[in-house]
């Protein structure tokens, strides 16, 4: 055996290097590279004989296996997973503290137990009494739901052998530790060992395992990136603490799509599905108000109407204010410049406030046209037609460009009763503004039909 060498390891992602570095070369974090101690250099792995049952065969001689999805009973969660939970699948659900991960998975466990499956819910962060209290409040009590409060991986494996469940939920993977690995729970080595062991058990027994993962301050999953590669499905639970709305997105899914979004609402009785979120992001005003326009945004494969509101106020300050909520500030600044330069709309001496209704965040360029029309309506103090919606990206030249999912957006607008849809058919933002105000005056203009 050769002489041991000293290595350095990143505490965030597990990246190793023979020399110390102030910044991690993998996750780009500063001050996370620490000395890992001497590591012995061993001989390389050599080849060995392969048993007949494990020898490589032509792919055409391997019998296909149908991956059947078992619904969890929560339609929005099944939508994200691709129809339900696959036997032997390892699913990682991450999210910020307090967003509702444990509440959602407790509801999943309850629905599965009520359907006749035996579920083991392992809480490494709360006691069984605390979980029982929350389950009683949310109506998630069932005789087939088994609770355990353990942080020792070997004890959790013993619980699985004794209970023999059909579904295992571990909350969370960063708080469980193996006694065979040095280091505290949540460390790179511990997270690797815990995840790899639970995934091995899942594959060997066709036992679906749901893991809860913590996130760092920048929103990424804590621990090594290998954790995301090991699991079959990576779901992100998103939401704002100021609102009750929550979204579940799949960033990785070996058994289904990755462009679906599940919508939930946090209530006093737990978490509730929102099958039709079309009413959540529009105001309840019965009379059209100036400075408002509806955009048809895409959340995954789902088209959602979102009302954009704008307010223009004369400013006496040398630099007028630009305040946004739910939209990109740099995008709004660009649209203000386009409106002033291409449409002759003076805005440089006014304070501009732009916001969305319901706390949703619009990040796609397809909302550009709706934002521009809301600003134009606020500037002229004239309300647009309440049955008007807009979709389109605006370039610096003022051109309106088509966006992805236009047929689906148009179908959703038609279903919700929007009679006028202004999109890339208007060609230029100046023409779109003219059509919007002509529609508000009930003038007959050539507006693109559905």
Automatic annotation (TrEMBL):
Domain RecA family profile: 66-215
Keyword Zinc-finger set for record: yes
Keywords: ATP-binding, DNA damage, DNA repair, DNA-binding, Hydrolase, Metal-binding, Nucleotide-binding, Stress response, Zinc, Zinc-finger
Xref: Gene3D superfamilies: 3.30.230.10, P-loop containing nucleotide triphosphate hydrolases
InterPro entries, A to Z: AAA+_ATPase, DNA_repair_RadA, P-loop_NTPase, RecA_ATP-bd, Ribosomal_Su5_D2-typ_SF, Ribsml_uS5_D2-typ_fold_subgr, Rubredoxin_2
Gene Ontology annotations of biological process type: recombinational repair
Entry domain remark: The middle region has homology to RecA with ATPase motifs including the RadA KNRFG motif, while the C-terminus is homologous to Lon protease.
Protein name: DNA repair protein RadA
Lineage: Bacteria, Bacillati, Actinomycetota, Actinomycetes, Micrococcales
The encoding gene: radA
